[in-house]
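Teaching assistant's notes for section 4

Start the section by putting this record on the projector. Ask students to predict, before seeing the second block, whether TIGR02453 family protein will look compact or extended. Collect guesses on the board.
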Amino acid sequence: MAYFTKDYLDFFIELAANNNKDWFDINRKRYENSVKKPFAEFVQIFINHVAKTNPAFKDLTASECIFRINRDIRFSKDKTPYKLMCSAVVAPNGKKSKSIHGVYFEFGPEEVRVYGGVYEIEKEDLFLVREGIAQNAKEFNSLISDKKFVELFGEVLGERNKIAPKEFKEEAGNQPYILNKQWYFFTKFDAELILQDTLLETLDNCLQVGLPLETFFNKFIQRS
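Reveal the predicted structure now:
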């Protein structure tokens, strides 16, 4: 089954040229029917699908996972009020989750983007992940070079320290990823995927392919 109509994509294409409150207010009912409601329904369907094999997602609701379409313009030079896509993070505790086993996705008129891994991390957890990589380098290298992972996500990304922390100076010479302050990965698909009945299956595959690496990180970061 298809979860969205073409008007989902058309709405954002038109919003890009009319990103203001007046246009949005005129098209608010259209937004509710073609964008907001079907996106929330799909997110809940995806949550329920994941919960079948992972009880940590059992009580999660779509509203806990979906980000607002309104942009935070307080500190931005770009004062357009609305995002040009819908996005959600399906992970235990949704947007409030500190865990690293889930998936973040954006559905826009140009492409679908799917992310996993570690993006934001506290200082003490950063040390623990670096220590985990240093002490389990063989396992980490095996995960990031796995054929399915490389074909789907390519490589692990993230901002790095230019200078190795003194505790990891020797290990960082052999494994540059220890210098990272983030360890995330992503892939993208044509926007037309949004209109296909393979959307759920595609997102689930992204989650499953990224899961071994996220499980690795979770060995060192134990929090909900």
